[in-house]
Specification:
This protein has helices spanning about 10-20, 50-65, 80-95, 140-150, 180-190, 200-210, 220-235, and strands at about 25-30, 35-40, 70-75, 100-110, 115-120, 125-130, 155-165, 195-200. By secondary structure, the protein is an alpha/beta fold. The strands form two sheets. Strands 5-4-3-6-7-8 form a six-stranded mixed sheet, with helices on both faces. The longest helix has 19 residues, at about 50-65.
Length: about 240
């Protein structure tokens, strides 16, 4: 994938998720205990070409939302580490901008390269974009934002995730369609903008009408199950 048109990456990413097995449809029990008709597994991206392509999609989405006026990409451990690395590489390739990457360790290292950070250590004045796969509870962001702010006087520019599931966060105490999503809760909590490469609505709308691998992924039965799920757990716009 060469320099992609910024408005074309969404549909390409939806196809990429399905073709890679990262986004699948059926009957799944989530960690929260909810039964879901779809499942997002960022761990399905395992090959060099997949990670390279994934980084380009993140880079395109970040550039479209935040531009290139920032210094550091931060990926929370563990899944955020390869995302930050591949996206930093893609940013240099696609947009000619050198962005440093940083991630946190789960346990501080007391020898060699000591401390809780991998890659570039945040410093005063750094403008930071956070990068994550899917935000379900915001726990990883809650754990890592204090680390960043304790390390240096950084400015948090925003958060980019791969897919916004557009579900109730369970944290706001609200109910019905007016409740906020987990992603919206994170942005509200820390006062920075949040965005996703695609939303679940965008993915569903596309996959209802367009075949992937020669067949329509979302049948009428799956579409009905998704509608039922979002009638109960949907949130946001």
């Amino acid at each position: 994938m060469l320099r992609m048109q910024l408005k074309a990456y969404k549909e390409d990413y939806i196809k990429f998720m399905v073709e890679s097995g990262a986004l699948s449809f059926g009957d799944f029990v989530l960690k929260s205990g909810r039964r879901s008709p779809f499942f997002m597994n960022a761990g399905a991206y395992t090959t060099g070409s997949q990670l390279s392509t994934l980084g380009e999609f993140y880079a395109a989405a970040i550039y479209s939302t935040f531009g290139d006026d920032f210094d550091l990409l931060f990926g929370p451990a563990y899944k955020g580490i390869p995302l930050a690395v591949s996206t930093a590489i893609a940013f240099s390739k696609l947009f000619g901008k050198e962005i440093r990457y940083c991630a946190n360790r789960k346990e501080a290292k007391d020898h060699g390269e000591t401390g809780v950070f991998l890659g570039a250590v945040p410093k005063d004045g750094d403008r930071v974009v956070l990068i994550e796969d899917v935000t379900t509870s915001g726990k990883s962001i809650d754990e890592t934002v204090p680390l960043l702010l304790a390390q240096a006087g950084v400015k948090l520019q925003g958060l980019m995730v791969s897919l916004d599931r557009q579900e109730k966060s369970g944290a706001s105490g609200n109910s019905g369609k007016e409740s906020r999503t987990a992603l919206e809760e994170v942005g509200l909590r820390y006062g920075f903008p949040v965005d996703s490469i695609v939303t679940m609505k965008e993915a569903v709308d596309y996959l209802k009408k367009n075949p992937v691998g020669g067949s329509i992924v979302i049948t009428k039965e799956i579409a009905a199950a998704i509608d039922k799920y979002y009638n109960e757990f949907g949130a946001g716009k």
